[in-house]
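User: I'm putting together notes for a lab meeting next week and I want to include a structural view of one of the chains we've been expressing. I don't have a solved structure, so I'd like a prediction I can at least talk through. The sequence is below, exactly as it appears in our construct file.
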Amino acid sequence: MNALDLKPNIIIGDDYNGFLILDAWKGFQIRQGSYGSNNTQEKSEGHIKVTVEGVPVDYVKVSSPAQVAAIHYLVDHSEEIKDALLKGLLEKFPSLKEIYEEYLPDVSEISQFKDVIGISYLHVMSAEKDGYAYIGFELGCTWDEDHGAGVMMHKGRVIEIGQADTSFDSWVAFDDNGTTEIEQAKWEEANARIAAEKKKGELKIKPWWQFWR
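Assistant: Thanks for the context. Below is the predicted structure for the 213-residue chain, given as structure tokens.
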């Protein structure tokens, strides 16, 4: 997926998967193995997998203008976004030391992260703020090979740092943009409607190609 080619469009299924090339991440570990494992000793050329979380419209999902804008912003500002992410991760290290103890690498400056982390996935979320979608960075890391690390960001701002699932946790984004209660109500309403329709045997889903009719 080239950022310049992605436009608001229909997504077949729940997500759209592709890739970006971000020069800012050249030289980091390649983390394309299962669960973000380090599958080669070679260094990354900035080739990164991307998944775009479809935004529900009727009975299909689409990529939104905010997601397109976020991807363009990421490509245009990849160096400063990378630095903001790594600075946030470095600031988090003292609290991680209590959890990982001797497994946590001795990192004192952001340039040292090249040898201990790599991006396994970018998650372009459906949640947005001020016209830009949130993007989650799923990282493989040497100190937690099972659970990895995850950073949720909005443009150049770090929202939350945790394990890998933080990078695709929509509720982290909802908490930040102030829509948690609205999204919770929508989720509960949708589940109640589906349950009621199933009970009545009336659940009908349009084929994706008929969503506009």
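A couple of points you could mention at the meeting. The chain has a mean pLDDT of 88. Residues 10-210 form one domain.

User: Perfect, that's what I needed.
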